[in-house]
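Chain A, query sequence.
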Amino acid sequence: MSEHKGDTIPCVGCEVTGCKYNTIDRRCCATEIHVRSEKAENKGETYCSTFCPRGCC
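Chain A, predicted structure.
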């Protein structure tokens, strides 16, 4: 189901089905990931800046 053909990053799951790097088995297949938030104090304040909507990138 992923548009990106590559290996998954070991142990990195992804529930964001609208991201082109999300595989059918809910793994991230980006070559690298970036999780950002300069002042995060809990997981709800972080986000994956590697996210790319399916069909747009």
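The CA atoms of residues 1 and 25 lie 9 Å apart. Residues 1-38 form one domain.
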